[in-house]
Amino acid sequence: MSIPMGIEGRSEIVADAKALAEAAAETIARTIREGDAPFRLSLSGGSTPRAAYALLAGRDDVPWEKVELFFGDERFVPPDHPDSNYRMVRETLLAGGRVTPRKLFAMPTDGTPEDCARAYEEELRQQYGASILAPGVPLFDLMLLGLGADGHTASLIPGQPVLSERTRWVAPVPQGREEVRLTLTYPALESSRLTLFLVGGADKAPAVRRVRAGDTALPAGALAPQGDVLWLLDRAAAA
Ligand code: 6PG
Predict the structure, then answer these.
(1) How deeply is 181 buried, as exposed, middle or buried, from its count of CB atoms within 10 A (0-12, 13-18, 19+)?
(2) Which of 87, 90, 171, 206 lies 20 to 30 Å (CA to CA) from residue 73?
(3) Mutate to test the pocket of ligand 1, among 20, 42, 43, 47 (most ligand atoms within 8 A of CB)
(4) pLDDT band at 6 (very low <50, low <70, confident <90, very high)
């Protein structure tokens, strides 16, 4: 009987939210230090990474000059809107002006969702240097992902057509959440040297178990990262 591959990967379990942020900041800083230039980092949104981004902003051991920052998804709102992932990153990682990445690619939200998705995809293709993702030539060096209690990651939301998008790299997600979203699709999310899931809280524990076991009924469970996978979990999410 074939065991579902799942995205088991390695896991590191820490005590609580504070330790989770510390472990995430340390892992991201070390991975950037050890990586080649340019180092393409895709940031996740939501609330979990806030504390880790704030810790990263205070470190002086990260060679940000080789880093190119991208976003895994975005809420289709203006960049100063309280729900904007870009605003969250600006208020945490980019606050204080010490983090000066070589390039920063926010997902545009100033046209139609379709036009903005296409524009971001074109930007990714430009940076990648090709329009087809080659296996073994990852688009990203580090893909930071969160996990919803419903098993979504980025804005791969259960029941939405984007789950079957295997050609485009970026797509609009018009339904499934209160705001329209833009998201990287499976091919783009999977094209990374390292995938780092950062998950905390007891409400996420059932989804963590199912995703790590490869339950493809959950959007994150159907992810097939090309490179290594590391789960950073607090005890509650790992229960
Ligand atoms: C977003 C994120 C999303 C997030 C999960 C977990 O835009 O909201 O990209 O995928 O990572 O929803 O969110 P929390 O960290 O807030 O629980």
Answers:
(1) buried
(2) 206
(3) 47
(4) low
Q: Coil, strand, or helix at residue 42?
A: strand
Residue 84, ligand 1, Cβ within 6 A: no
- Which atom of ligand 1 lies at the shortest distance from residue 201's CA? 17
Tokens coding 162: 């984007």
Query: 185 near 219, Cβ under 8 Å?
Result: no
C-beta of residue 83 within 8 angstroms of C-beta of residue 73: no
Taking the whole predicted model, whether its pTM rises above 0.85 is answered as: yes
The verdict on the CB of residue 73 being under 6 Å from ligand 1 is: yes
| CB 151 less than 6 A from any atom of ligand 1 | no
Rounded alpha-carbon distances, angstroms, from residue 88 to 42, 50, 55, 220: 14, 7, 14, 23
Is 235's pLDDT higher than 70?
yes
Per-residue pLDDT tens digits for 194-212? 999 999 999 999 999 999 9
- Nearest atom of ligand 1 to the alpha carbon of 145: 11
Question: Ligand 1: does its nearest atom lie under 6 Å from the Cβ of 160?
Answer: no
Grouping H, G, I as helix, E, B as strand and the rest as coil, residue 49 is helix
